[in-house]
């Protein structure tokens, strides 16, 4: 058992506290990663706000990159010193969903109370999202990590762990967008910008970004959007349809606002897909007219973590980054120390930041 520094949540919505906690050594099938960087995702903020429930105290954080400093029994394919990204996708590899190529919805349950963390006094401490990466070190299952080049900047690498694979994967894996098709991306935040990148990489003809501010639409253009529509307008779908010369083959909803989900079918053509990525608070509901959607052959599908197979998709995205085809450096709005995490949270909640990164 070793002592590390972490940002701990004791009360939903209250400032995180920087504390010394205990981390158990890696067990069978696990690895220890000493972190260089962890970025702040809106899911972390939602958990911190208590929107998804769970137990406290907890250490959140799940978009991480670092180097392996411990290897448990039975782990092969990794060595001490390897540079890796660490994700929340813990997959057993043998359940029906894993065998169907859907590790993001692995059906093997995990006990969040049985993780490697304890408080300095030996009390229970939840490893949030199977990662607990707002800490100097983590211990995770080997299925949660992917090796990356040793010279890749760690602040950029951390982004691949969630926001990038979620956005790009929503377009490429979930929507299955083909070259020449049109797509609307609702929300030009961190995940939305990556959905826009995914559409550009997939060869979309028109990529329409929808957001509440002109400033965010300008940023979206830098990532590949061909057109923009202000979500603050009474009927933003009219501007989007005008830009495309018709309706979209896919609508990617990357925000958690119910109004965005309700409006999504208005952008969609016959046979098109709505991909639900954004995460409203538990208990909120959207409404649709099933008769119309059925008659038009439209689909609504959920996409968790971009339906990613991280051992396949992250190396591909690293290669795209090295070619200059995937923007990562440009996604980083600010770099912070762990002791500044509450300020970084506040900055993220303004909606102006693309991604804030904690550097160790």
Task: Give keywords.
2 domains; Rossmann fold; six-stranded parallel sheet; 10 helices; Quinone Oxidoreductase, Chain A, domain 1; 360 residues; 18 strands; 26% strand; alpha/beta; globular
Q: In brief, what are we looking at here?
A:
With 360 residues, the protein is α/β, with parallel strands linked by helices. The protein has 10 helices and 18 strands. The chain has 2 domains: 2-153 and 328-359, Quinone Oxidoreductase, Chain A, domain 1 (Alpha-Beta Complex); 167-303, Rossmann fold (3-Layer(aba) Sandwich), CATH 3.40.50.
CATH topology of the largest domain: Quinone Oxidoreductase, Chain A, domain 1
Question: Which range does the strand content fall in?
Answer: 25-35%
- Share of helical residues: 25-40%
Q: How large is the radius of gyration?
A: 20 Å
What composes the largest sheet?
A: 7 strands, mixed
Beta-strand segment tally: 18
List the helices and strands and how they pair.
Layout: E1 2-8, E2 17-23, E3 30-40, H1 42-49, E4 58-59, E5 63-71, E6 83-86, H2 96-99, E7 117-119, E8 126-127, E9 137-141, E10 145-147, H3 154-174, E11 183-186, H4 190-202, E12 207-211, H5 214-222, E13 227-230, H6 236-244, E14 248-253, H7 258-263, E15 268-276, H8 290-295, E16 299-302, H9 310-323, E17 332-336, H10 341-349, E18 355-359
Parallel strand pairs: 4-8, 11-12, 11-14, 12-13, 14-15, 15-16, 17-18
Antiparallel strand pairs: 1-2, 2-7, 3-5, 3-9, 3-18, 5-6, 6-10
Helix pairs in contact: 3-4, 3-9
């Amino acid at each position: 058992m070793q002592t590390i520094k972490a940002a701990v949540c004791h009360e939903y919505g209250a400032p995180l506290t920087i504390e010394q906690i205990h981390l158990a050594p890696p067990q069978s099938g696990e690895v220890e990663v000493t972190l260089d960087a962890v970025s702040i995702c809106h899911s972390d903020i939602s958990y911190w706000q208590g929107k998804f429930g769970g137990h406290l105290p907890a250490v959140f954080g799940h978009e991480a990159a670092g180097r392996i400093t411990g290897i448990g029994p039975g782990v092969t394919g990794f060595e001490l010193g390897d540079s890796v990204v660490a994700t929340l996708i813990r997959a057993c590899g043998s359940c029906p969903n894993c065998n169907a190529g859907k590790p993001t919805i692995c059906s093997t349950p995990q006990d969040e109370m049985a993780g490697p963390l304890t408080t300095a006094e030996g009390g229970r401490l939840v490893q949030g999202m199977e990662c607990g990466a707002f800490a100097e070190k983590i211990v995770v299952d080997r299925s949660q990590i992917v090796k990356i080049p040793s010279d890749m900047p760690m602040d950029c690498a951390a982004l691949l762990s969630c926001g990038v694979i979620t956005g790009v994967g929503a377009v490429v894996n979930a929507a299955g967008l083909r070259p020449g098709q049109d797509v609307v991306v609702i929300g030009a935040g961190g995940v939305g910008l990556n959905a826009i990148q995914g559409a550009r990489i997939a060869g979309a003809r028109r990529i329409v970004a929808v957001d509440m501010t002109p400033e965010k639409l300008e940023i979206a253009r830098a990532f590949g959007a061909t057109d923009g529509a202000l979500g603050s307008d009474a009927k933003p779908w009219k501007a989007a349809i005008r830009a495309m010369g018709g309706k979209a083959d896919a609508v990617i909803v990357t925000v958690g606002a119910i109004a965005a989900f309700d409006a999504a079918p208005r952008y969609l053509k016959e046979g098109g897909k709505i991909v639900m990525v954004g995460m409203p608070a538990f208990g909120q509901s959207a409404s649709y007219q099933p008769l119309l959607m059925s008659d038009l052959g439209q689909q609504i599908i959920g996409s968790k973590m971009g339906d990613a197979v991280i051992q396949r998709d992250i190396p591909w995205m690293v290669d795209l980054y090295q070619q200059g085809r995937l923007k990562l450096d440009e996604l980083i709005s600010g770099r912070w120390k762990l002791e500044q995490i509450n300020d970084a949270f506040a900055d993220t909640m303004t909606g102006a930041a693309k991604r804030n990164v904690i550097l160790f």
